[in-house]
Write a structure and sequence with these properties.
Helix content: 25-40%
Number of domains: 3
Mean pLDDT: 94
Distance between the termini: 37 Å
Strand content: 15-25%
CATH superfamily of the largest domain: Mur-like, catalytic domain
CATH class of the largest domain: Alpha Beta
Strand order of the largest sheet: 8-9-7-10-11-12-13-14-15
Number of helices: 14
Oligomer: single chain
CATH architecture of the largest domain: 3-Layer(aba) Sandwich
Structural class: alpha/beta
Length: 448
């Protein structure tokens, strides 16, 4: 049985409208393609398109409702001066009526992967909702929050930012009981004077934490003490995770991993020993600990978790007659996530196989772009990775600093890669792909 997301009475209360009292709705959308039956469509004008173009199609179904700022009046549309602000109003109402424990996640990398792992784990305890995909901006967060059902026990929301003040606005809408900062790194650096500005912008998540709430911090992060100081000044309780001594400490041995939780060692079944994944498990355990869940019942929660495409998932592919093991981390790239990917890849055992990297530009690094791309070469030169192929413009700085033996090819565009990838790779190669999304490698390798 489908749970009613909103009754017409609730919509009338939020928008001061006069809808038929027998109507109800079970979906909020800002993309008309997501609206099938009993949906509320917010016609928002974006940079590339205007949702008002699709209102007529949406309203062909008499059970749908549209929130519009222009066009002819209709008994199944509500007029608003600003449809995005109206979406925020509905999101605010959803948050106000909800009795769910709310978790908000931010950080320079790993937000979506942690959100999905936490969703998988909390869903085993109670009905859980999490923001879809990477919907973490001023459109995606209110859209996600507006879809929070009144009977959800847990809600998980990802908060992103590219400049100062953005997280402040989002967190005061979400109002989490628990907030997590995964790490601080030079992502979106072009919009900040330095990385300390990024740290302060991420710390804005503490501005909207519910009274008596908790902030979960990575003890290993070099900005931990800066974030701790901010939390202490706000009198917010802190819970920590990491390899260093912390509330949830990762203890990695030969072929196994355990977690020291408040001085008690608990072993978990985990077959993914990547550092980033272990951080996500530890942060997830912190949330369960905050919620007073029995940690011992979670021992099998993390063994078979499926990683999303483009975020480090592995798959065997064939390029013509050549067998390739693909490690696809092509959805996004910044200095922190790229260094982590290289570290994990370098630890992978190889026999007679070659280890190959195809890496694209890291974007939005501003004046420090050349520096960070050159630093990657220093790291790559110390690894057992055989060949590095670079695609893009900024990444030429990496290629120029590579040892001659590691230089594969400097590729200008995706078109060249499509035509020549067969010749670049050998049978049984292990291939890591890492890039910012706009370079196009994610969509290219998605087809294999």
């Amino acid at each position: 049985m489908t749970t009613k997301l909103y009754s017409s009475e609730e919509i009338n209360t939020v928008f001061n409208s006069n809808l038929n009292k027998n109507l109800f709705f079970n979906k909020v959308a800002i993309d008309s393609r997501e609206v099938s039956n009993r949906g509320i469509f917010f016609a928002i004008k974006g940079n590339n398109d205007d949702g008002h173009r699709y209102v007529k199609e949406v309203l062909k179904n008499k059970n749908n409702l549209a929130i519009v700022s222009k066009g002819p009046k209709n008994e199944r549309s509500i007029r608003s001066q600003d449809t995005l602000e109206s979406l925020k109003d509905l999101a605010s109402y959803a948050r106000q009526r909800s009795e769910a424990k709310i978790v908000a996640i931010t950080g320079s990398c790993g937000k979506t992967s942690l959100k999905n792992l936490l969703n998988s784990s909390l869903s085993k305890v109670g009905k859980t909702y999490c923001s879809p995909k990477s919907f973490n901006n001023h459109f995606g967060v209110p859209y996600s929050l507006a879809n929070l059902s009144s009977d959800n026990k847990y809600g998980i929301f990802e908060l992103g930012m590219s400049s100062k003040g953005e997280i402040d606005n989002l967190v005061n809408l979400v109002k989490p009981h628990i907030a997590i900062i995964t790490n601080i790194g030079p992502a979106h650096l072009e919009n900040f004077k330095n990385i300390y500005g990024i740290c302060n912008a991420k710390a804005e998540i503490m501005n909207g934490i519910y009274q008596n709430g908790v902030i979960i911090l990575n003890k290993d992060d070099k900005f931990f003490y800066s974030l701790k100081k901010i939390a202490d000044n706000k009198n917010i309780k802190i819970l920590t995770f990491g390899f260093l001594k912390s509330d949830i400490q990762i203890k990695k041995g030969s072929g196994k991993v355990s977690f020291k939780i408040k001085n008690k060692i608990i072993n978990f079944k985990i077959n993914n020993f990547n550092k980033s994944y272990l951080y996500n498990v530890a942060a997830t355990l912190c949330v369960h600990y905050c919620l007073n869940h029995n940690i011992n019942l979670l021992k099998n929660n993390f063994n078979n978790f499926k990683i999303l495409e483009g975020r480090g998932n592995e798959k065997n592919i064939k390029i013509k007659n050549k067998k390739i093991l693909l490690v696809d981390d092509s959805y996004n790239s910044n200095p922190a996530s790229l260094n982590e990917a290289i570290y994990n890849f370098s630890l992978r055992k190889k026999n007679s196989q070659r280890k190959i990297i195809i890496m694209g530009d890291m974007l939005e690094l501003g004046k420090k772009s050349k520096y960070y791309h050159q630093q990657v070469a220093k790291i790559l030169n110390k690894t057992n990775i055989d060949k590095v192929f670079c695609i893009g413009s900024h990444v030429r700085h990496t290629y120029q600093k590579l040892n001659h033996s590691k230089k594969g090819l400097l590729i200008k565009n995706i078109s060249f890669l499509k035509e020549n990838i067969f010749n670049l790779l050998e049978n049984n190669d292990i291939l890591l792909v890492k890039s910012s999304n706009r370079i196009g490698l994610f969509n290219f390798f998605k087809k294999f």
